[in-house]
Write a structure and sequence with these properties.
It is built from four helices and no strands. It is mainly α and 146 residues long.
């Protein structure tokens, strides 16, 4: 006769942040990364096409050509979309990469403020929220495992 006291029990410690299921905050951050990346791609395409949507800036410290800024936003937008898809996989490296890329996106959009202020500030806010959500999601999931 075997008793339950002699059998080893596996303890379910919750999700591990480097393996597993993501929190709702992390999924929302990934969705915002994909959205922000797509918007940055559109912004980059419009700048490369030299659309009349953007204002002319004269004595700006970080002055590139409009097409140069367009390529920056286009490449950063594609990387943001890919990072957002990777964050959905639940991998820890993807979250760290997402924080890095969203931070770069916030910086690029902050430097873009003189060209298209309202849109740039909106994307700065989205990227800062993504950084917060990814860091908060990692904190919550790591706390669940303890």
């Amino acid at each position: 006769m075997s008793s339950d006291a002699t059998r080893p029990r596996s303890v379910d410690v919750g999700p591990r942040p480097w393996h597993g299921p993501t929190s709702g905050t992390t999924v929302f951050a990934a969705a915002l990364m994909i959205f922000g990346g797509v918007m940055a791609v559109f912004e980059g395409i419009a700048a490369i096409a030299r659309d009349d949507l953007f204002g002319a800036v004269r004595h700006y410290v970080f002055q590139f050509s409009l097409a140069g800024w367009g390529w920056v936003h286009l490449i950063l937008g594609v990387v943001l979309v890919l990072a957002g898809c990777a964050v959905l996989s639940g991998a820890l490296w993807a979250r760290f990469f997402g924080v890095l890329v969203a931070g770069l996106g916030a910086l690029a959009n902050f430097l873009w403020v003189p060209y298209y202020p309202l849109w740039a500030l909106t994307l700065v806010a989205v990227n800062v929220f993504v950084v917060w959500a990814l860091c908060m999601g990692m904190h919550r999931e790591a706390g669940d495992g303890a």
